[in-house]
Amino acid sequence: MTTTGARDPQDDDFEAPRPRLPEGFRIEGWETGAVIGSGGWGTVYEARTVADGTPVAVKVLPTGALGPGQRAALGELVAREVRFSAEADHPHLVRTHAVCTVEASELPALDGAIALVMDRAEASLKDVLDAAASGRPIDGAERVLRGVAAGLAHMHDAGWVHGDLKPANVLLGPGGQVWLADFGLATELDGTHAHLPPLGTLDHLPPEWWSQRTGTQGAVVRPTADIWAFGVLAHQVLTGGLHPFPGATARARSLSAQTYARGTAPLRLDAGLADDMRLLIADCLAPDHSTRLPHTARGIAARIEDITGSPRRRGRRLVPAVAAGFVVLTAGAVAGVALLGGGVGTRDDDRDGGVSATVTGARRPVPGEIPADSDVPEALRPVIARAAHRCTDEEITPVLLAALIKAESGFDADATRPQSEEYGIAMWTPSVFRAWAVDGDGDGDKDHMSPPDAIATMSLYVCWLDQRFKTGRAAEEGPSRAGRGRLPHQRPHGHRGGRRPGSGTAARGQGAALPRRLRAVTPGRTRAVGRTHQGPAHRSSPVPVTAAVSRTPGRSAAGCPAS
Ligand SMILES: Nc1ncnc2c1ncn2[C@@H]1O[C@H](COP(=O)(O)OP(=O)(O)OP(=O)(O)O)[C@@H](O)[C@H]1O
C-alpha cells in the first residue's frame, strides 16, 4: 500500500520547528510579513511589494538541511512550477511573479532558500471547508466549482496535468477569485500520460494509483486523475467538507474508494446533493481511468456552467431540504416515524418491511425525513438532518435519529441520569463520547452537552453500527456480548483517548427504546464512518531541493537573479 510513497496526513503528527524569516525581511523588491502557513515543502509568508505596497505571498523553500538527492528532487519540483507558471496564464491559475534565492547569511537555515513570489490569496479552499457547516454547500460553491473546473480545463488543454488537485491547492483571492495553485506536481503530457514523482495526497488520489507500479520516472499520471480529484473536491464543496468515501482517516477513505473501484461497494454520494451535481460527481468518480476518460475537464467545466447558469436551477438550493428519491425508508425509520408521533403516510408500496420512496403530494413527508407534524422541536430538525446526512448509509435517516433522541432524552438538552453517567440530549456517557466525538457545530469543541455535537456523534455511532450490522458481524456476535444494542453510553467502557471503542468489558445503563434491528448489535473493532474532513495538513518528510531556479519568463513583475 505504501509503495507509491503517497502522503497520509495521519502519518504527520510530528513537526520539527521550522526556521522563520523575520518580519520586514527583504527579498529583492519584496518585504515579508507574517507567516500564512506551512506545507510539506516550505513556509508561505504575507509580503508586499516595496515599490507600491501591492500584497503578494512568498513561499520559501529551504534547502539547507537537505541531502543531495532531496535537493535534486525539490529542484525538479521548483523547475516544474517555474516552467508551468511561465507557460500558463489564466484567470484561474495563481500567478508566480518571480523566483528568487534568499540571501541570509545571518539565518543559515534559510540562506540559499528558494522564494516563489505569488499573488496573495485570502484563504485556501481547505480553510473554508474546515470552517464550514457540514452537510450544506459552502458559500459561493458554484463559483468555486466553475473556477476550479475552468482552471483545470485550461491546464489540460495546454497539455498539463495538475497531479495534486485538493482543497489546499485551491486559493481564494480577495475579490472572490478562484485560483489553482501548487504546480510542483504539474507535469507535461507526453501523448496521453506523464510521469510524476511518487507524491500526491491520499484523499484525492484515484483508485488506480494503487495498482500502478512506480518506475524510475515516477508514477504514471493522466488527466483522468485530476478528474477523479475534482469529483472528490466537488463533493466536499457541496457538502461542507464531506468526503465521498467513508472512513475516519485518509487511508481508510482511500481503501473505501478502492473497494468501490473493485465493484464490491456502491458509490454512495451525499443524499442532499442535487441530481445534476450528483451525476456530474459520479461521472468524475467513475471507477477507473478508462471509464473516466469520456469526462474531460473541458466537458466537466461546460456542464458546470450549464448546471449553475440554467434558469431551471437558478434560485434553487444546491442541497434541498429533502432528498426525495434517494432515501429508502428502513424498518427502523418507519418505527421512528411512529415514535415521533407524526404521520407515516408515505408508504405507497410495502415490500419485505422496506418502503418505496415515492412522494407525490406536497403534504406527504419524504421517506426518512422528519414529518412536518411530528413533535421534534423545530430548532433541532436541521441539526438532526445534517447529522443523519453525514452518514453515507441510507438507513441512517433523520427520522431514525430523531426517534432515538426522543427515546433517550425526550429532546431535553439538559437531561441527566447521574446514576448511570448519562448526560445531554443523546444521553452520552462522557468517557464514551470522547472516543467517538464529532464537532457537530464546528465551534472547535466537542461537548456531549451540546446538542449538535451529541447528535452528530450519535449519527457517527449508529452509522458504524449499521455498517457492522450489514457486514454480518452483528449477527455473528449476537446479543451474548456486552452491549446488546444499547446506545453509545451503554456500550462497553474501558477505552480512552482517540481510540474507538471495542475492547471494553462492562456494560452500563438501561436499555433504550431502540429499533429492533439495532438492539442485537455489539460494537467490536472500529470502522468509523461519517465526518471525513481531511486530516491535518500533511507534513511530508523533508524535501529535496536543488537550486536550479531560473527567472520566470514573461510573467515577472520584477525579476530575481537566477541562481
Ligand atoms: N499565494 C498564496 N496566498 C495566500 N496563501 C497561500 C498562498 N499559497 C499558499 N498559501 C497558504 O499557505 C499555506 C501553506 O501552503 P503550501 O502550498 O506551502 O502547503 P500546502 O499546499 O498546504 O501543502 P503541500 O505544499 O505540502 O501540498 C496553506 O495554508 C496555503 O493555503
TrEMBL record:
Its EC number is 2.7.11.1. SUPFAM superfamilies: Lysozyme-like, Protein kinase-like (PK-like). The keyword Membrane applies. ATP binds at K59. It is an enzyme of class 2 (transferase). The keyword Transferase applies. Pfam families: Pkinase. CDD domains: STKc_PknB_like. Residues 483-499 have a biased composition (Basic residues). SMART domains: S_TKc. Residues 1-21, 349-374, 474-563 are annotated as: Disordered. Keywords: ATP-binding, Kinase, Membrane, Nucleotide-binding, Serine/threonine-protein kinase, Transferase, Transmembrane, Transmembrane helix. Residues 30-304 form the Protein kinase domain. One of its GO terms (molecular function) is ATP binding. This is non-specific serine/threonine protein kinase.
